[in-house]
Specification:
By secondary structure, the chain is α+β, with helices and mostly antiparallel strands. The chain folds into three domains: 84 residues, Rossmann fold (3-Layer(aba) Sandwich), CATH 3.40.50.20; 61 residues, 2-Layer Sandwich (Dna Ligase, domain 1); 179 residues, D-amino Acid Aminotransferase, Chain A, domain 1. Strand 13 and strand 14 form a beta hairpin. The longest helix is centred in the middle third of the chain and has 17 residues. Bound molecules: adenosine monophosphate. The site of adenosine monophosphate has 13 residues, from strand 14.
Length: 361
Amino acid sequence: MKVGVIGGGQLGRMLALAAAPLGIRCLCLDPARDAPVSGLCEHIVAAYDDADGLDRLARGVGAVTYEFENVPVASARALAARVPVLPPPAALEAAQDRLLEKNLAQRLGIPTPAYRAVDDRRSLDAAVAAIGLPAVLKTRRLGYDGKGQAVLRGAGDVEVAWAALGGAPLILEGFVAFARELSVLGVRGKDGATAFYPLVENHHREGILRLSRAPAPGLTPALQEEAEAYCRAMLAELDYVGVLALELFETGGRLVFNEMAPRVHNSGHWSIEGAETSQFENHIRAVAGLPLGSTAPRGHAAMVNLIGTLPEPAAVLAVPGAHLHLYDKSPRPGRKLGHVTLRGDDAQAVERGLERLREQI
Ligand code: AMP
C-alpha cells in the first residue's frame, strides 16, 4: 500500500521512516524541491492547491494524510471525493481556526480559557471588558509557534496589539496563569479503537517547543484520565482516524484546552525510542486500517529540539541514552533542524543525560 502525505517536512519524513518497515511507502506532496522528505520517499513537487499535483497524489495512493494543519481545506475535500483523507477534513477545518476549535472544545465539555471573537476595534474593547486583563490576542488563523499573538497586560497594550494584529479575524483569550504546559496524543483506528500516550510536559521559548519530558514528571492517574477523556471526546466527535494532539495548560491541578493539532506532533517525537509504538507508526497504522500498537512508554524520555544551529553529531551521540534525528534542513535562525531523544529506565537517568547534553551542545 502507498500512503499520500500532504507536506514533506520533518513530520512527513518521520512518517515515511515509520511506514517503511510495515511495507508501506509514502508519496509526499510539497512545493519545495529540497523538502526534508526528498531523497527519502517519492515526492511530488507542486503547490498544495495545484490541481495536477493533487490529481497525481490521488491516483497514486490508497489513502491520504497530512503533516501540517494549514493544508487548504478545499484541497483536502477535493481529494476526499476520490480517496480516503484521514484525519477527516472536518478536523483540519476546526484546527485551522482558533475560534472554531474552542467552540468545539466547549461543546464537548472540555474547559477552555474565557474567549471572545474580535472582528473590529469595538469588539476588542468589549472583549477586554468582558474577559479582563491580562489576556492574549491571537489571529484566528495561520498562527503557529507563538506567531500572530500578543499578550495584553495593561490598558496601554491594547492599542499596540491592535496595531500589530488588527485587520485579520482575531480571538481574545483570558491569560491562563498555568503551572505548566502539557500535551496529550491520542490515536484512533478505522475500527474506532483508541490509545493514548502519557501526558507530556512541554517547555517553550520564543513560542517554539524546546524540551518535552515523557511521561510528564509527577503525572497522576487522575490527570492522565482527564486528558484521555478530553482527547477521546474529540476523536469520537470528529470520527477521527490517526494521531491527534491536544495542547493543554495545567492549572490548579486541572487541565485547560489551548489548541489541537490534527496530526503527529513535535511533543510526540520522544515516542520513537520512548514508547512501544511511536506516534508515527501508529498514525500510519491507523490511516492504513491496521491494528494500533501499544502506546506504553519504555521507561522515561526527554526530547530536545535542535533549533537554528546543529551540534556536532559525535558530541550528542557520546551522551548515554541519546538518539539523534536530523531533518536534512539547512540551518536558519528559529528553524527546527532536528531533535535529540534521551531515553532511560528512570527519570533520574534521563535528567543526567540532559545535563550531559547541555554540556555538549
Ligand atoms: P499557541 O500558539 O496558542 O499554542 O500559543 C503559544 C504559547 O503562548 C503557548 O504555548 C503558551 O505558552 C502561550 N499562551 C497561549 N495562549 C495562552 C493563554 N490563553 N494564557 C497564557 N499563555 C498562553
